[in-house]
């Protein structure tokens, strides 16, 4: 966030019906009555703890949109060709029931065992990546597999990337991946399978809260109305204005990941307004055009987003972002999640709980 923000890479996301508490997007958008939709019970005061070392579990939580699972990002120098080859050998040995994987797993200890849980196609693709690309790619796939497992979803084949960079998942599953040192996150859920044929798409994003910077990105990511709201400091001391800009940026990242499978085009920062509330809910005001009528006849597009903080509560606030989990200060990250779905236009409900 210290540098000029990149153009949004809009991706496909996951599903599941959680709390329907945000705005409706249709030919004429309508905001959901906040007082009638329950929130997260003071989410800004309930940071999720980062914990554990290596590639092991750091985050495991049920969000309104689905299950969220996070693992620690490995150091770029630790995922070498030798480690990937050892993981492939350990995987083959495990499948054949031989003991040959023991020697391979001895290389780099438990990391090889963790990587051996991935699909062989994922490991082969990683071997063609640079050391800096391998960590996020592999950790994101491991997080997604553990996320699916925690949600009771049967094992899936290789989780690769589509042309937009989103994870490829079976039709009955929706998911999204995000990473920021030191954690890689996955959000997933099985599609609702409602009689109306509702298909939900999810998005997730994690951003590290930074110290005040001389670079102001607010004009590039926020509308004039959003900048006025930020200046009012409605979220209090816990989320000062400079941090709220980053929070809104993260919410838009999650929303755009969830929206892209439906909109199927580039979405700019200023095409959506978001207003995070203290209890973790988010008011969403779409400014973009609705999906083409010929593509989704008689449908209304709805969206929902939530946010919360992530990081240790009673720790050293000056610790670096890649420090052991016990040294992470409070709270160091924003975690945002979103869901988008189409409903038949005959359904007149402005929101659903």
Features:
353 residues, alpha+beta, Ribosomal Protein L22, Chain A, 10 strands, globular, disordered C terminus
What would your notes on this structure say?
With 353 residues, the chain is of the alpha+beta class. It has a domain at 24-72 and 166-344: 4'-phosphopantetheinyl transferase domain (Ribosomal Protein L22, Chain A). It has helices spanning 81-96, 101-105, 110-115, 120-127, 131-150, 218-221, 224-231, 241-263; strands spanning 24-25, 57-63, 66-72, 173-180, 183-190, 200-208, 272-276, 282-286, 299-310, 333-344. The strands form three sheets. A four-stranded antiparallel sheet has the order 1-9-10-6. A four-stranded antiparallel sheet has the order 2-3-5-4, with helices on one face. α1 runs antiparallel to α4 (120-127) and α4 (120-127) packs antiparallel against α5. Mean pLDDT is 75; it is low at 1-47, 99-109, 313-330 and 348-353.
Strand content: 15-25%
The CATH topology of the domain at 24-72 and 166-344 comes to Ribosomal Protein L22, Chain A
Over all CA atoms, what is the radius of gyration? 20 Å
| Unreliable segments of 5+ consecutive residues | 1-47, 99-109, 313-330, 348-353
Shape: globular
CATH superfamily of the domain at 24-72 and 166-344: 4'-phosphopantetheinyl transferase domain
Count of DSSP H/I helices: 8
Secondary structure tally: strands: 10
**Average pLDDT, all residues:** 75
Helix content: 25-40%
State the order of secondary-structure elements, H for helix, E for strand: EEEHHHHHEEEHHHEEEE
CATH architecture of the domain at 24-72 and 166-344: Alpha-Beta Complex
Spatial strand order of the main sheet: 1-9-10-6
Cα separation of the termini: 34 Å
Q: What can be said about the biggest beta sheet?
A: 4 strands, antiparallel
Q: Structural class from helices and strands?
A: alpha+beta
CATH class of the domain at 24-72 and 166-344: Alpha Beta
């Amino acid at each position: 966030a210290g540098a000029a923000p990149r153009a949004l890479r809009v991706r496909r996301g996951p599903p599941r019906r959680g709390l329907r508490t945000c705005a409706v997007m249709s030919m004429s958008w309508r905001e959901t009555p906040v007082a009638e939709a329950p929130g997260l019970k003071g989410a800004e005061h309930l940071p999720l703890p980062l914990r554990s070392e290596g590639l092991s579990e750091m985050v495991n939580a049920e969000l309104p949109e689905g299950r969220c699972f996070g693992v620690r990002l490995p150091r770029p120098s630790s995922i070498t060709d030798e480690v990937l080859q050892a993981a492939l050998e350990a995987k083959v040995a495990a499948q054949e029931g031989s003991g040959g994987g023991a020697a391979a797993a001895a290389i780099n200890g438990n990391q090889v065992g963790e990587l051996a849980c991935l699909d062989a196609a994922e490991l082969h693709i990683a071997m063609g990546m640079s050391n800096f690309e391998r960590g996020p790619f592999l950790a994101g796939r491991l997080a997604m597999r553990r996320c699916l497992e925690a949600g009771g979803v049967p094992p899936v084949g290789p989780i690769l990337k589509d042309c937009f960079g989103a994870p490829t998942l079976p039709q009955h599953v929706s998911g999204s991946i995000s990473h920021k040192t030191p954690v890689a996150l996955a959000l997933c859920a099985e599609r609702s399978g409602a009689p109306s044929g509702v298909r939900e798409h999810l998005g997730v994003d994690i951003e590290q809260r930074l110290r005040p910077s001389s670079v102001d990105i607010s004009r590039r990511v926020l509308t004039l109305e959003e900048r006025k709201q930020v200046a009012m400091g409605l979220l209090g001391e816990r989320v000062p204005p400079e941090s709220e800009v980053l929070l809104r940026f993260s919410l838009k990242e999650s929303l755009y990941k969830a929206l892209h499978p439906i909109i199927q085009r580039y979405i700019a920062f200023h095409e959506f307004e978001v207003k995070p509330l203290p209890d973790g809910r988010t008011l969403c005001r779409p400014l973009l055009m609705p999906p083409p009528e010929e593509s989704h006849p008689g449908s209304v597009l709805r969206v929902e987003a939530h946010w919360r903080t992530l990081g240790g509560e009673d720790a050293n606030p000056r610790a670096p972002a890649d420090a052991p989990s016990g040294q992470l200060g409070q709270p160091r990250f924003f975690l945002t999640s979103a869901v988008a779905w189409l409903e038949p236009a005959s359904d007149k409900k402005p929101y659903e709980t």
